[in-house]
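Ticket #495: bound-state structure for nicotinamide-adenine-dinucleotide.
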Amino acid sequence: MNISPVVFDEEADISEYATFSHGLYIGGQWRPSSDGRVIEVFDPSTEAVIAAVPDATPADAAAAVNAAAKAAAGWRETAPRKRSEILRRCFELMTERAETLAALISLENGKALRDARGEVAYAAEFFRWNAEEAVRISGEFGLAPSGANRIVVDYQPIGICVLVTPWNFPAAMATRKIAPALAAGCTVILKPASETPLTAYALAALYEDAGVPPGVINVLTTSNPGPLTAAMLADPRVRKLSFTGSTGVGRVLLAEAARHVISCSMELGGNAPFIVFDDADLEAALDGAMIAKMRNAGEACTAANRLYVQAGIHDAFAEGLRKRMAALQIGPGIDAETECGPMITRKAVEKIDRLVKDAVHRGARILCGGAVADAKGYFYPPTVLCDVPPTAEMAHQEIFGPVAPIMRFDDEAEVIARANDTEYGLAAYIYTRDLAKGMRVASRIESGMIALNRGLMSDPAAPFGGVKQSGLGREGGQKHGISEFLEAKYIAVTI
Ligand code: NAD
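RESOLUTION: The complex was predicted; output attached.
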């Protein structure tokens, strides 16, 4: 079958989803899967099928690895300045196409358009930041302690990278990997989530328009990621796996990668504590809680999952949060007024509902929301719970939805112990007017990232990542993100 290339037209009617679902993107060609099967894509706001994309087979994955291998030498030898300029062009094109990309994200993911616009801006920044990093990869030169020789350290591209990304940030989770990989001189195969493939393919067309050579970026969608990813990792030419997704799948992939001793970067799940001390600025804490909880309707790895509020400010905070959450406009993400869109799937709604029922069964009180409406679309209402006991399931696993469980605490040592009582360690939030206390608590919370008196910490210029079961490695930041795609080569030389 001959598939025409994706043509990006800013004036095009975004409801013509087929424009973005042409084929697998392998070696600069758009092609169907080798067995002709497709994956249906749903609009979570209406439950309607809006497009179909090819369902790749392991044979397609092998073709993608071949394409990445064929392009590897050319890309690695492309001058850093040239690579930088292509990445910069990706940033510019994403900025020019921001509205169309945001609409596409909203349609297939369900998130509110304003969140989708924020995601596109964030996703584009990875290209700008890494365009700047591409020309600043430097090595080391020193004298061995014995004085016998010089130690030269060169940083080289690690090789072909398999990138696996989730549905909750279909653009940003991809660009957060692709941009540093390309800046480092690597070629890649992206396997996006099958729930949100259209954004990945729209971006593939954009990379081509920006001048990324054929085979440097390949994109494959599949309904059966296990065997397909395993086949790619078993190819000795693949040297890197960068994964963003759940901790459970991360563990499976780490085991798979271990069989072939492949370098892994893992951005996994979270269970962020949001701590409000008595001396916090109440309005600022509420503003921060709304961002930390409700960005993407709670479908974020950094989402506030447990809100610990000190006894003196507890009631005022709970009432303030109830008012704000109850006032949110629920609706299809694509509607401009929507503040809380649908969840990704029916299964996600059922999981949230089960967690809320479990908390209530254990003694939590519902301040607002808490019931699924009998209507089309995967909606769950913004919900605030208080008196949530530490035994509630939602205190130990990701809610991944618009539910804010409030838990009262009395003192600093107690809240630190409770915040750390989780296998996760991705993000944490602290609100206090006492900076020394804020820094002290931040240093004791077991978490890769802390937002102090802020509801948001993600920034391409800062190292993003978790400790404990939340992951391995960092994305973004000065040197951190790009170093995940570089390998040190030591040369001993006598001069
Ligand atoms: P998921 O783990 O189910 O899927 C993530 C990706 O892995 C998808 O592309 C999926 O198709 C693929 N996958 C699933 N099973 C696989 C297998 N056996 N082998 C290979 N690939 C497989 O996660 P999700 O539901 O898409 O995303 C939500 C999760 O992602 C949450 O846990 C969230 O916290 C996490 N997340 C983490 C970060 C971070 O930066 N730490 C960012 C966003 C999301």
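RESOLUTION NOTES: The mean pLDDT is 96.
TICKET STATUS: resolved
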